[in-house]
Design goal:
With 119 residues, the chain is mostly beta strands. It has a domain of 63 residues: SH3 type barrels (Roll). It contains two helices and five strands. Strands 4-3-2-1-5 form a five-stranded antiparallel sheet. The longest helix has 6 residues.
């Protein structure tokens, strides 16, 4: 854990004071012991868990133009607007409960009996 910012938070922007670089934490690999980050320019990198605590980090506000760090590519419609971040796209989805919309209005059964095949 870092003394200034604590443990890394996925989706949080940080400023690395010694380099003046801003980055976004995009994931964490517990087995490898690494924190996955993406720079403002879109470059992907990793920080070792052990090194995280020694870095001079501060919380940072998301940049106004973070299009370089989008999960999805920009649309090809000629629009100058950046692609919608994946989290925002998921918020706009209207999802139905499991079992609905599969050609039946009845939910799927919790258990299905399977009879063994005879040989």
């Amino acid at each position: 854990m870092n003394e200034l910012v604590g443990s890394p938070r996925i989706g949080q922007w940080y400023l690395r004071g010694d380099k003046g670089e801003t980055f976004l934490v995009t994931g964490r690999d517990q087995r490898a012991g690494t924190i996955e980050i993406q720079s403002l320019e879109g470059d992907l990198d990793e920080i070792d868990d052990n090194n995280w605590s020694a870095l001079p980090l501060e919380f940072a506000e998301p940049p106004e133009d973070s299009s370089g760090t989008m999960d999805s590519p920009p649309d090809d419609t000629g629009s100058e607007e950046a692609a919608m971040p994946a989290a925002e796209a998921l918020e706009d989805l209207e999802l139905e409960p499991l079992g609905k919309g599969l050609g039946t209005e009845e939910p799927l059964p919790d258990e299905v009996e399977v009879e063994p095949r005879s040989r």
